[in-house]
Amino acid sequence: MEVGDKLKELNMTVDEMDRLTKAFKDEKFREMLREYAEELSDPENKKRYEEEIKLLEQERGNTVEFIHPEPFRALRTSVNGKQKCFINICANEKLGKPSSRWGLSEEGRRGQCWSLPHSLHPGRQDTDPKGNKIMIYDVIFHPDTLHIASKNKRFMDMVDSTAIQGIQKAFNVTLDKNNVREMSTKYKGTPHPCVIRRPTPGYEAKAPSEKPDPLAFPYPNEKRPIQPSQSKPTGSPATENSSEAESKSFQVQPQKTKEPTKPNYTVKYRSFIDLQDFRCSRDSAQSPRPKEIVVTIDLPLLKAVSDASLEVKETRLLLESKNPAYRLELPLAYPVDEDKGEAKFNRQRGQLTVTLPVLPSK
Fold first, then answer.
1. What are the backbone dihedrals phi and psi of residue 174, each rounded to the nearest 5 degrees, phi first?
2. Which of 11, 238, 246, 359 is paired with 305 by a 20 to 30 Å CA distance?
């Protein structure tokens, strides 16, 4: 099904599909395609590509560095309450080292104030082995930062918090902090390198000529602002600005009990139309009272419906789950028949649909 969706995105004509089918039957075409794939995956070709990009950027007054993430640990959560999300905590020596200084908190307690430079990669869509769509983010720190985190749980929590807050602030998304879990694997997906681009000090851009060169490299000049934290897969130029976050660590306070996450939901009111409701008679007016209430709840981290408990009363709906931690208490606008409702869970979409029949008016 996922392959069919990708073929639809190509928007290929019937003639193009036939030509492609015939080409794959040709042994020579398959051999050329295999050689092309091997050439793209050759590490020497990738290094040659990076050197060419560096030379092109030097001519434009920029210094670039390719950042290759080294897997360290992977976290699982959800983004915007609708989709599974994975955060890859990675290392690279080209990032700034962690630093600390002594300071005072707002409450007047003395402690260390840490600065953790890190690089953020925009989220990229991917699919899991079951074909479900997921979102993947990469956050890169200096190896010294992750070495300290591996020795100190409090420092590891600070690194995770820095990564989550950085993603939310940079890409304007909301991550489920209450249901963050560490994965058994160190990296989710395929590592994608990016580029950190910095302007060369003292470089003066050349004035644009009156006659533009049709063969010029089509890349925006200095007049166009560079968007922060942009990256693309290997094979195309990319821009990545490293951001520096400052995390504070003071005297340990008692941890507050995390409240369960309130999932996203939609409520729809369903009615059934009968031709008798449109007769030319006073008693044929359609009642504004719905026949059913349909509640759709987004539970992207729920693996099975047996992991959650659903309780329906006449004027209230309560959904609870411990792992992952979800809780939704929803008052109902109309009294419902609590014995005749039904619930269906779509694992691929991560949605629970509850249909409740409305009781007739007294």
1. -120, 125
2. 359
CA 335/CA 174 separation, integer angstroms: 34
Are 94 and 145 contained in the same domain?
yes
Residue listed under structure tokens 């369903």: 270
Mean pLDDT to the nearest integer, 207-221: 55
pLDDT in tens, 313-356: 989 999 999 888 999 999 999 999 888 889 999 888 889 999 99
CA separation for the pair 331, 336 (Å, rounded)? 11
pTM confidence score: 0.71
Same domain, 95 and 132: yes
Q: Is 193 left (phi over 0), alpha (psi -120 to 50) or beta?
A: beta
Task: Count the neighbouring beta carbons within 10 Å of the beta carbon of residue 195.
Answer: 21
Instruction: Name the one residue in this structure whose structure tokens are 């670039």.
Output: 64
Residue 99 lies in domain = 62-200+227-249
Q: Write out 278-316 in H/E/C secondary structure.
A: HCCCHHHCCCCCCCEEEEEEECCCCCCHHHEEEEECCCE
- Residue 114 to residue 118: CA distance in whole angstroms: 13
Note whether residue 309 is domain-resident: yes
Based on the fold, state whether residues 69 and 117 are members of the same structural domain. Answer: yes
pLDDT of residue 186: 92
Burial class (CB in 10 A: 0-12, 13-18, 19+), 326: buried
Q: pLDDT digits over 155-182, tens only?
A: 999 999 999 999 999 999 999 999 999 9
- pLDDT for the residue numbered 213: 57
Higher pLDDT, 282 or 217: 282
